[in-house]
Design the sequence.
């Protein structure tokens, strides 16, 4: 049987990515670039300009790395949402144009769902509780009744966003997560910070304000980073644990850009040991925003019989994780 | 004789026999993967908070287990053993009218707490017990708080909404409607602000 090649295009926020994945689950290439800004933060218009300027080149190099040509593409998948409107529209326009030009089917992919499925592909997990942590998302998700349901999430800001805002305050570059992690290793004095878990949801805004106050009081930066990480990750561990106890699932998956953090990984590993379940942290190159996950999800959807017409493919900036019927898992 | 009857996210629930009757011993175990400072603080504050709030809730007219003893050193609470079944496990065995009736009672109980400016903090269907006389009991007050604001009450309702949509997705509309009905009837006009706050909270924290 012929192998199917899917081009996946991701561009929901500040990163643009293109990946080629086969229907056998082989990731042949995964190219991406992130918009760098001086002051940090993302301006949606600048990010969409970044995507339209660099997108075609990134797609081209993804094809080159995979060793295939444009005419070998059987299927194009794109991130339809959730994300920043201008970024999504640029990405979708590229995907539609290519699908028309190459005369291949188009598949619309939910960005959050794609993060879970690429993690399942890599880990061979079948039904995990997923902790999805990034600049824009902090969610605990599990499959139930034909959908990926959000059991818990942040009530205000996402963990990556919290770390970036704190980092900016402390004079770090963007994204600040890696520097916070590095400095936290040098900290040892714990300063009490608001720990806010509400059911299976959590809140970071109070902790962020308190951490900024520590800085203005002259507490050493490493101690602040240490205290913030321990508190913020402890809260995540708790809501993950609540979801595990509630759903009785036997796998725990950590994904998203913040999955790169080793301390968070260690804590969630401890959670899985306590409950006697399997744990997997998605490899950094597949954990952040990239095209391979979109391509793989595109294949799952295509094989389950789903494609989308150009006319119906308008972007969905607020597309919730639990708003998509997961037909390939039924 | 002690028997583990549930292993929750933050505690082990033991059924124990003393003085010729059954009790529940709730034990918040230490979590080695958390920073010791945080772990100790959480176990202590939640244990003492739970004891206090179980009693306050009862004084507000909500059925909760009575507390007999507490030990802050090993984070244990000795309380009534409620003979019954978790509402979560009953939901799919009930007729629509029975289901509505229990949800109505659930909403009424939450309203009684809110009337006294108390929030439950984790109002899921796992934390409701239905006894043999069809009475509804509220348990697990470790995240409960006093002096609750409209925001805190709104979060409480948001958590109910969340619990229903993730766990009882096929019945969520019926259940939410009946719960809100019981809530509004008991709380009166005060419920309007809290319900609209719930909707507002649902829209926050999302990738826009």
Sequence:
């Amino acid at each position: 049987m012929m192998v199917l090649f899917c081009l996946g295009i991701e561009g929901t926020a500040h990163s643009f990515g293109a990946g080629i994945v086969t229907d056998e689950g082989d990731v042949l290439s995964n190219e991406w670039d992130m918009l760098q800004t001086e002051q940090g933060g993302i301006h949606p218009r600048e990010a969409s300009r970044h995507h339209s300027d660099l997108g075609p080149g990134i797609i081209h190099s993804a094809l080159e790395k995979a060793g295939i040509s444009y005419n070998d593409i059987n299927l194009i998948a794109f991130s339809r949402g959730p994300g920043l409107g201008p970024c999504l529209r640029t990405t979708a326009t590229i995907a539609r144009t290519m699908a028309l030009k190459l005369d291949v089917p188009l598949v619309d992919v939910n960005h959050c769902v794609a993060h879970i499925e690429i993690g399942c592909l890599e880990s061979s997990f079948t039904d995990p509780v997923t902790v999805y942590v990034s600049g824009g998302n902090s969610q605990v998700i599990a499959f139930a009744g034909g959908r990926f349901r959000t059991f818990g999430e942040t009530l205000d800001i996402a963990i990556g966003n919290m770390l970036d805002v704190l980092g900016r305050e402390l004079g770090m570059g963007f994204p600040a997560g890696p520097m916070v992690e590095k400095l936290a290793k040098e900290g040892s004095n714990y300063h009490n910070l608001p720990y806010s878990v509400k059911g299976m949801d959590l809140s970071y805004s109070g902790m962020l304000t308190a951490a900024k106050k520590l800085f203005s009081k002259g507490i050493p930066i490493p101690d602040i980073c240490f205290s913030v990480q321990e508190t913020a990750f402890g809260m995540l561990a708790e809501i993950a644990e609540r979801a595990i106890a509630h759903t009785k699932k036997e796998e725990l998956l950590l994904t998203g850009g913040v999955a790169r953090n080793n301390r968070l990984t260690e804590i969630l590993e401890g959670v899985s040991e306590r409950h006697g379940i399997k744990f997997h942290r998605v490899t950094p190159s597949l954990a952040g925003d990239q095209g391979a996950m979109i391509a793989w999800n595109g294949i799952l959807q295509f094989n389950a019989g789903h494609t989308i017409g150009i006319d119906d493919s308008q972007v969905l900036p607020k597309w919730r994780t639990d708003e998509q019927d997961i037909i390939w898992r039924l | 004789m002690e028997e583990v009857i549930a292993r929750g996210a933050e505690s082990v629930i033991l059924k124990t026999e003393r003085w010729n009757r059954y009790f529940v011993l709730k034990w918040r175990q230490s979590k080695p993967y958390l920073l010791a400072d945080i772990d100790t603080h959480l176990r202590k504050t939640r244990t003492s908070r739970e004891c206090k709030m179980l009693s306050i809730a009862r004084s507000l007219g909500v059925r909760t287990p009575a507390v007999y003893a507490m030990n802050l050193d090993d984070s244990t609470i000795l309380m009534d053993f409620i003979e019954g079944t978790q509402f979560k496990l009953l939901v799919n065995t009930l007729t629509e009218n029975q289901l509505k009736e229990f949800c109505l009672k659930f909403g009424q109980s939450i309203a009684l707490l809110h009337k006294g400016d108390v929030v439950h903090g984790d109002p899921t269907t796992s934390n409701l017990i239905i006894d043999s006389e069809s009475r509804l009991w509220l348990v697990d007050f470790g995240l409960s708080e006093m002096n609750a604001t409209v925001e805190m009450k709104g979060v409480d309702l948001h958590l109910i909404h969340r619990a229903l949509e993730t766990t009882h997705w096929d019945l969520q509309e019926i259940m939410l409607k009946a719960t809100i009905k019981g809530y509004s009837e008991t709380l009166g006009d005060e419920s309007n602000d809290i319900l609209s706050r719930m909707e507002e909270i649902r829209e926050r924290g999302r990738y826009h």
Remarks:
- The two ends of chain A are 25 Å apart (CA to CA).
- The first strand of chain A starts at residue 5 and ends at 10.
- The CA atoms of residues 140 and 224 of chain A lie 26 Å apart.
